[in-house]
Amino acid sequence: MALTLVRHTQRPELWDRIPDQFAGVVPDYNLHGDVNDDYWNRLFDEFPDFQFLLYDDERDVIAGAGRSLPRSWDGTAADLGPGLDDSIARAFADRDAGRAPGALCALGIEVAEDHQGRGLSKVLLDAMTDTALRAGLRTVLVPVRPTWKDRYPLAPIERYAVWTREDGTPFDPWIRTQVGAGGTVAAASGHSSRITGTVAEWEGWTGMAFPEDGDYVFPGGLAPLRVDRERDRGTYWEPGVWITHQVSA
After folding, report:
1. Residue 60 φ/ψ region, left for φ over 0, alpha for ψ in the -120 to 50 degree band, beta for the rest
2. Coil, strand or helix: which one is 180?
3. Which helix (H) or strand (E) holds 233?
4. 30-39 pLDDT, tens digit each
5. Domain count, the chain
6. Which one of 36, 49, 73, 98 has the minimum C-beta count within 10 Å?
7. What is the pTM of this model?
């Protein structure tokens, strides 16, 4: 399979196939983040060159996808902010205000299930670096969704982020890949992305019942879900780990 990098400006129609071809890559609840309604369409209208695919033209197959936005950043850990939601809102606020970006922020790096295990996440990460260089940016910020955090939903993300294996490398596979590619663990946040929905919606997304108020551990969740049946509301904050990559030409 010969894969090429295709940006949204080149083949925008390919993105219509993402929901079907990448079904199951992330949990269903992750498709309903609170910021999506405000910014999702603007992502492709205003920042099309920052969205790309790994595509096999001969077989008409999409193997991977990367989404990103340029955002302001002063180079400090404090200015990274709480995570994904804040970065998306900041990127559009920067654009609307005419502020120059200071870094490229990754929004998602996803590999289709049929193509996982082939090292394509590293290929997509390299494409993110190239995208930053094209935009004249020397840093890539990645608010990582840790691969194995759902196995330890009660562990604080600040502690999980620094867990290591016996060889000293990061415990989490995706953090380990990022560090192996030259990234640095810069911070961790328990409030990277908020997802809210009705109790019925959360029961549909998770396949669980939530019979009373309280906190629930659920399949695929990186942290507990807070359920308030009187308000008919489930609230979930997904944690994340900030990885910074310095880009050289």
Report:
1. left
2. helix
3. strand 233-246
4. 888 998 767 8
5. 1
6. 98
7. 0.92
